[in-house]
Amino acid sequence: MSTSFTPPSSSLRFARKVSSAPLSAAHETDAARLLVREDLEALRVREENLRAYEARLREWQARLEAGPRGAVTPTRAPFAAADVPGEAAALRAGWEKLHRARELLEAESAALRDDRQAMQEHEAALQAREAALAEREARLEGQEKAVETGAVCVASAAGGRSVAASVRSPFQRARAAWRGAK
């Protein structure tokens, strides 16, 4: 007995000759009856094929169930329980060591992350301080150049004194303070 199955064709209708001549009412009804008979015969053939296929499937299923593999055998667990009593304790101790090592690793990584963040903040503060110092140095250089060239002789609006007069050495200021002169 063959176990292969060939599916029936997807079309139930057969090719027909169609004439282009007009048919009378009697011919039209005869043609319609013929079409119905042909369709009915095609359905009967298909039904027989399906019944035969169903019978083959049932026979195949019966052979599979009756065969040596028909009974379901229980399977063993892939990892059997430890036969040696000390093995379970060793396994538990190994897991505890693993968990402790993981905790230590996480603590160290957190400390390293905190140190890295503190270093980045320290570097940012140093860069800001460096930029402020560079700005101050540039401003002082500009003032020193202005004093050297004598370009800073503009009278102050409040006191009427020049900037050069107010930029005296500390000794001159002290002498003026002792004498009481302005």
Walkthrough of the structure:
Keywords: Coiled coil. Residues 102-139 form a coiled coil. The chain is mainly α. The chain folds into 2 domains: 1-70; 92-172, no CATH class. The protein is 66% helix and 0% strand. It has helices at 25-66, 85-149, 163-166, 170-179. The longest helix has 65 residues, at 85-149. The radius of gyration is 54 Å and the shape is elongated.
Quick overview:
The protein has 182 residues and is mainly α. The chain contains four helices and no strands.
pLDDT under 50 segments (min length 5)? 154-158
Number of strands: 0
| Tally of separate helices | 4
Strand content: under 5%
Characterize the overall form.
elongated
Largest sheet at a glance?
none
Overall tally of domains: 2
Share of helical residues: 55-70%
Keywords: Coiled coil
Q: What is the topological layout?
A:
Elements: H1 25-66, H2 85-149, H3 163-166, H4 170-179
Structure keywords:
mainly alpha, 4 helices, 182 residues
